[in-house]
Amino acid sequence: MRYLRAILPLAITCILVYLLNTSMKSGPALGKLLDPVAGVWTNAEPITKDYNKILAFEQLEGASKVWFDDRMVPHIHADNEHDLYFLQGYIHAMFRLWQMDMQTRAAAGRVSEIIGARGLNYDRDKRRKGMVYGAERSLKKIEADSRSRNMLEAYTAGVNQFISELDRKSFPLEYKLMSFEPEPWTNLKTSLLLKYMADDLTGTVHDIPLTYLKGQLDEATFQLLFPERMNNSTPVIPNNTTHTTPSMQRPAQPERDVWATLNDSHFDKSTDIDGKGSNNWAVSGSRTKNGNAILCNDPHLGLNLPSLWFEVQLQTPNMNVYGASLPGAPGVVIGFNENISWGLTNNYRDVKDYYEIEVLSDETYMFDNKPMKYDKRVEVVKIKGAPDFYDTVNYTIHGPVMYEQKFKGPNGLAMPLALRWMAHDESNELLSLYLLNHSSNYDEFVEAIHYFECPAQNMLYADKKGNIALWGQGQFINKWEEQGKYVMKGNSSSTLWGSKIPMNENPHVLNPQQGYLSSANQIVTDSTYPYWYNGKFADYRAWRINQVLDTMHAATVEDMFALQGDVHSILAEKTLLVMLQQIDVDSNSSYVSMLQEWDYELDAESVAATVYQKWWELFYNDLWKAYEKVPEQLYPNTEVTMQLLIENKLPTDSLGVLLTNSFKRTIDFLEQRENKEWYKVKNTTVTHLSKLPAFSFSNLKIGGWGNTVNASKQNHGPSWRMVVEMGEKIKAYGVYPGGQSGNPGSKDYGTFVNKWAEGSYYELLFLPNNNEQQNEQIKYTWTTDAK
């Protein structure tokens, strides 16, 4: 017994040591996590942390300096481009390594390596979509051009230099929480990051839901509820712009039946037919107080921490550029230099089509009455705690077979569908960014953006000479009318994509007579544009932005701040009176009185905003739920619903009943809530990528919604607000919902979130291009040299 009492504590200790240092399915190895020497405690940074350094790297070719301002924005000055991009890679990794690592693993379909089998479907989706395939093809093109190759190789070396300096104690916190380690950076990872953005911005697919709806509705009803072009749209390229003479004729629609048929048994009802949003606009000097062009941009993306963006200034003797960069890629994506500024919004022209494949066997499919062999790509998915999963993806003349019996889409979609996607084609967006950063005039800007193929973007321009311009930029196909609008049969060459439209024929305008330009994801052109295209476009924000800009004749940057924060609801302005006239409730109701006196502003503290938004939400869902021909998630968008309501064309005989019942349920909803202010109801949250609440910011005091210029929704909104006045001395302002550091234990982690929520800005420190900087905002200095 004495021996047992002596051995038992030792055995328990051994078991505890094993358990605490072994990763469990539900979390990290607690022993390693709580280790006082190398665990999570080491990630807490002191407020007084000193970033001043003298560094020597054998990879550097000369001397360079990095100044960190009081917001920890690095201003990197190097005598050559190699050293510049090396240091950018090193600094990106220093602040954001885990984010870079996770986003590129996600792009490659490698999440299961970290979280286990629950990530398998996600990984298979990314691989069957052809993410790695597209990234590999584009990387060949990137590395074939010496400018983009040298840029990327220097950046990769910088990231790997930082990784080589890490030990377990200094791993970013999330590695310890998720029990994995950094791996070397590669050029392919940066290419994957660019495809990750392309997937996010072109991920909405309309072919499948529209094919189903077309089979359920008669033609007149289908066109009424799902029009290609909204009435009264204000296109990105202003009406009556003269377009470049087309070099190609629009192809004729094939005479044979080319459409696949979808029925209720295999239709993907969860397909989201709404997309991402963004705003940009530029005002010429003729409409500004100081006579300088002003450019504004606020791309609307997921509100995450670490932030998608990282502020940086890059300087060489031939370049001085400032703006928002993507951790994981060299250069500046949205920003300005000493001569020009530019901004981006998503261009929703369709570049992603599905084809029904006529399967003959595991090895062949039918095409033009002949059997064709698949090109097979074996995807090996590594799974934490489980054997590897092998998935053979069949590639056709159209692209990879994404959905089929062995990998069903949402809701059991098992039809064999191949995906044709512009992101599969080789492209070199990195070269576009390189040239943009170096551009000094409009011609150089145009040359630069012509390398930007996917995702398509509305690219805005302003310069110090007062010029403004806008291009609907991307690589597009000369399609026959309705090609790609619905799922096509893939057994005939008649449905193949045709020729690529020359880049110089993309819609564009320089110095329009109206004196301003704007894009907010609305349709790109009026009907005079010679090539056919389709897409999922938005209108509310464009209507409001153009409404405000049209009245400006002495605009200031403060006016631009106000417009970026504008929460006026066009939806409410157009519909509220009609809705109130239809309801049968007590006219003395305090909620009715509140709405009658409301100014249509979705202010953060407004209760009236809550009443209207909840009422509209309930009415909208009740209306379309009662119309059984259109299933849930495929309802017409709110702009269409608004216009049909105003024109009294909604498909219901019970409008008053629907509005009355939904209003009464709105009151019930409000009466059950203690907090009725709009911001508390909508709960805008900036969420850590790991979904850990402790690392997130919730219930932010910010107004707006998707139908206002300030499109701050629950977890989606303005990811980077920028205003640049292109005077002799450039004045620029910006803010994003995050902080420079990705470390939750750092004082620089969420520094900007509250300022972003309140609609305030930082004046951006754009340093002159010299080797000695004297500025009171500079807090730390690095001096670097080659070993």
Largest β-sheet summary: 11 strands, mixed
Mean pLDDT figure:
92
Strand content: 15-25%
Radius of gyration: 27 Å
Counting DSSP H or I runs of 4 or more residues, the number of helices is 22
List unreliable stretches of 5+ residues. Answer: 8-21, 30-41, 268-275
Tally the beta strands: 28
Helix content: 25-40%
Physical arrangement of strands within the biggest beta sheet = 1-28-2-3-7-8-9-10-18-19-21
Structural class: alpha+beta
Oligomer: single chain
**Alpha-carbon distance between the termini?**
66 Å
| Silhouette | globular
Task: Compile the SSE list and pairings.
Blueprint: H1 2-20, H2 30-34, E1 53-57, E2 64-69, E3 74-78, H3 81-108, H4 112-115, H5 120-128, H6 131-144, H7 146-164, H8 173-178, H9 187-202, H10 207-216, H11 219-225, E4 277-283, E5 294-302, E6 304-305, E7 310-316, E8 319-325, E9 334-337, E10 340-346, E11 352-356, E12 364-367, E13 370-373, E14 375-383, E15 386-395, E16 401-403, E17 417-421, H12 429-438, H13 442-449, E18 457-463, E19 468-473, E20 488-489, E21 508-510, E22 516-519, H14 540-549, H15 557-564, H16 570-582, H17 590-597, H18 607-626, H19 638-646, H20 655-671, H21 678-682, E23 687-688, E24 716-718, E25 721-725, E26 731-735, H22 753-757, E27 762-763, E28 778-786
Parallel strand pairs: 1-28, 3-7, 6-23, 11-20
Antiparallel strand pairs: 2-3, 2-28, 4-5, 4-22, 5-24, 5-25, 7-8, 8-9, 9-10, 10-18, 11-17, 12-13, 14-15, 16-17, 18-19, 19-21, 25-26, 26-27
Helix pairs in contact: 3-7, 3-9, 6-9, 12-13, 16-19, 18-20
